Amino acid sequence: MRFLKVIGLLGSTFLFSQQNDCSLKKSEHINVPAADKNDLLCIAKNSGKPNTVFYTLASWCAPCIEHLPDALKLEKDFNTDVYVVLVEAEDDPRVQNAINRVKDRLEDAKMLVLKNSVYPGGVKKRNKTFVTQITPPEFETIPDFSKFIVINNQGDVVMVTNWKDYKKLDKKNTENAQQMLSHTVIPLLQ
């Protein structure tokens, strides 16, 4: 148990040193750093990994919760960092529920929350603004949730998934995250 605590402390120290390089600050409302598109690009550039995966999550989004284990498993199985990006407002009472859901899956998961100052309004408006900013022109901009965003160590967004990526593979099954990941995200991480 002591060994796990030491590993967790070292991981947290590394995470916060990366965040300091990117000038990330914890939200004044919750114990999670607040971030915007430029912060995500900075994290990916400074991760020391070829690619970084950012997974968007809202506490009330059933697919987000369902696909969370698949998102977190990417870090274990591939040479990548995975960050869960909470799309609810920093001061939204539901955001703590989202944090708890992530920590129930992985206590030391890396999390970020979208900055209120950059993404004002309700969760759908915040998410739409964020998705519009982060999605390159070669991808269709669909402001859904449970997105896998892959950014390489040059700071280029190389993948932004959406609900159509699930449907392309099996028109009867729109929820198979592992199948979708194996065709879209995992090839970028190998």
Automatic annotation (TrEMBL):
Gene3D superfamilies found in the cross-reference section: Glutaredoxin (3.40.30.10)
What InterPro entries does its record include? Thioredoxin-like_sf (IPR036249)
| SUPFAM superfamilies xref list | Thioredoxin-like
Under what name is this protein listed? AhpC/TSA family protein
